Amino acid sequence: MDKLKAIRYFLAAAETGSLAGAARRLEVSVPAVQKLVGALERELGLTLLERGTRGVRLTASGSEYLDQCRSLVQELEALGQVERRLGGAVERVGGTLVAAANPQLAHHVLLPSLPRFHARYPDIEIDFRTVNRIGDADAAAADVLLLHGWPEVPPDYVHRQLGGACSQIMAAPGYWAAHGVPEHPSELGQHNCLLLRNPAGLLLDLWEFERDGTRLEVPVHGWLSSNSRESVLDLVIGGHGVGRFTELTTRQHLQSGRLVPVLRDWDVLGGPPVNLLFKGRARRMPQVRAFIEHALQCLRELEAEGDALAARIPMDRPAWHQRGYGRASAAARTRR
Fold this sequence. Notes:
The protein is α/β, with parallel strands linked by helices. It is 40% helix and 24% strand. The chain has helices spanning 3-16, 19-26, 30-44, 60-87, 103-110, 114-120, 137-140, 173-179, 229-237, 251-256, 286-305, 328-335; strands at residues 49-52, 55-58, 94-101, 123-130, 144-148, 157-165, 167-171, 195-196, 202-203, 206-211, 214-219, 225-226, 243-246, 260-262, 267-269, 273-279, 309-310, 326-327. The chain has a 6-stranded mixed sheet, with helices on one face. The chain has a 3-stranded antiparallel sheet with strand order 13-7-14. A hairpin with a 2-residue loop joins strand 10 (206-211) and strand 11. Helix 1 crosses helix 3 (30-44) and helix 2 (19-26) packs across helix 3. The protein is elongated. It starts with a helix and ends with a helix.
């Protein structure tokens, strides 16, 4: 057992009030926290934390042990900072890294930044793969994943939800000129809306909006639907219909004027959250830590340029979201 790490895990659990809270703070899996805190208690022959359905609570022994551990950890952290500062100038991070991302996040977020990452870490070799879901074969081999949506996270993964992806309703200038600009979401039912089918097979034909506490669900339709996001985007850019896309992956088209957003006074709901996932044990690898920080920095830079990510957008799995081929609009009618 790594006793210092076990003490850190115990401190985090005590301060957050739960093992899950400690796992989020430390960016490790919940089983990892359970294992080390349990091992620490067995070595000491003491029960430090009382477990319950609402979290954990310090025992009398745990409270006394906590006070002794805090000062020790603070001293060790200060020493570690000095050591990192002295050794940082000569440290070189190397090794192989397997990274994976949704195609859209790969092309619009990570791939453009990889030359910069390589310039900083020339000894890291990157095996980069595109995946749609965490259950894909290539996803299982990845040390780090950047995914859209609501993944079903295995227990040995650390999961960080980074914010909701802001969506916009958009079309080419020529389309709006020919068909008129909608002034209310309900008018989209009169437009040719080109639709996406998500990786789970669900047709996203229910567009949701919110403004000043009012929420609307608008069923939409058009002459084409596809599971190929790029195919739908190309047709929308060509003036053949209206699309709903995230700002994060269409920014260049919006800035160039090839796409024009409408209904900007409404929040467009249903945009999938962006998720960073990595295996708990992989975090010990310096190349993995470096890539995680790089991915987070890329997203921070994009967020600073606009509202690509926003905490105000609901990030819970929508009620209509389901597996298998079907329609979001039908799932919404079923739940009523």
